What does this fold into?
Amino acid sequence: MSLYYNPKNTKNIFDPESKTPFKLSRSKVDLFLNCPLCFYLDRKEGISRPPGFPFSLNSAVDKLLKKEFDIHRASKTQHSLMKAYGINAVPLEHEDISRWRNNLQGIQYLHPATNFLVYGAIDDVWVNPDGEYIIVDYKATSKEGEVGIDAPWQIAYKRQMEIYQWLFKRNGFKVSNVGYFVYCNGDTDKKAFDGKLEFDVKIIPYEGNTSWIEKTLLEAHECLKGSQPPLSSADCDYCAYRQEVKKIRKVD
It folds into this structure.
């Protein structure tokens, strides 16, 4: 057994009798959409999926981008990328920007119908001359060709953007329907490494649609209120693995 992974969690477990708001991160909303059974086991039974390996390089890019845009936030100026892509906006200067970026806090909204305290930690917010907040998310990869956001698995990126837009709207802010992905692609075509990795940086606009969120929260709430686990998603790798193990061990 791993010295680090404990599948049983005792924190933030859903109790249908509790009146205390139940914290639900945007990633857990995405988990419900990916597989209701994994979501139920995670938030109701405290049995979490094994964690993935940390993407340290991605985290480094994320941190450096924040530092870079913070320079322009302080001076109320446009970043050169914003100018290059014709985006008439500047990084938002706001007293809560650090809290909104904090993974344990983020921007929050108490959803009355479910008593879910929905939250998510953003990468950045820009603001245009009309006072509209523009949600921005940083991504990093290294692949051949142009980066994009239209691969089937990147639906998670789009949902992430839309939940952030929804959270800011619910907090009373004027929010642009168009957000941006600042996508950094590691360049492997150089002759040598020379102790540095260079990136091609692209800004990709995305027009969000938040209409699915209300229905999803209600369905997630019903899922957690159930006395029996729901069915798994047909394409859930984790559930497929568990089922194959059961067959081999011949246990229920």
